[in-house]
Amino acid sequence: MQYILETSCYPREHELLKQLREATFEKYQFWSQILTGYSLLTVAPALPDDGKITAIDPNREAYEFGQPFIQRAGVEHKINFFPSDAGKEPGIKFEGKEEGNFDFAFVDADKQNYLNYHELLMKLVKVGGIIAYDNTLWFGTVAEPEEKVKELALRKGRNDVVVVNNFLAADPRVELALVSIGDGLTLCRRLH
């Protein structure tokens, strides 16, 4: 995993992001891409001072690991963190007033629940807003026949992602683009 530490892979990476990425790798090694606030620290500085991020993740420890970096960046006031498994219990009781008030949603969670998240987010994200789904290429296996995917763990995730990709491609409520960066990112713009 040496490529993760090479700075040439991150040409515009803020110094705090670099420090967080390196600290995450040092602590978690192979699992260096788990959420430790890196995505939050990437987005929060770009928001206006009164902008808000609602972050839902079951792993409070990982969030707390990244929290000092978020604090040093001076953006902690923009983040509402909810330690919850969004696939089972959103952790937030949406009361209806939030409907149509989100500009953007980024989903990097359990792939078998992506369709559940999609239905919730279609209510929360306003018309014209964006929902981004991470890992929609699933190591390139979505382009392979299922029987050619050797590892069982990869095959399970692949099948979940194929179902999601097919659903999103046919959903008339969104316009989408699959961006082949990283492990694939699908951007859905809510049409109605």
Give a description of the structure.
InterPro entries: Cation-dep_OMT (IPR050362), SAM-dependent_MTases_sf (IPR029063), SAM_O-MeTrfase (IPR002935). It is an enzyme of class 2 (transferase). Keywords: Metal-binding, Methyltransferase, S-adenosyl-L-methionine, Transferase. GO terms for molecular function: metal ion binding; O-methyltransferase activity; S-adenosylmethionine-dependent methyltransferase activity. Belongs to the class I-like SAM-binding methyltransferase superfamily. Cation-dependent O-methyltransferase family. The protein has 192 residues and is α/β, with parallel strands linked by helices. It has two domains: 1-47 and 59-77, no CATH class; 84-192, Vaccinia Virus protein VP39 (Rossmann fold). The chain is 35% helix and 20% strand. The protein has helices at residues 2-5, 15-28, 38-43, 60-72, 114-124, 152-170; strands at 53-57, 79-83, 102-107, 125-134, 174-179, 185-190. It has a four-stranded mixed sheet with strand order 3-4-6-5, covered by helices on one side. Helix 4 (60-72) links the parallel strand 1 and strand 2 (79-83). Helix 2 runs antiparallel to helix 4 (60-72). The protein is globular. The chain starts with a helix and ends with a strand. Mean pLDDT is 84; it is low at 1-10.
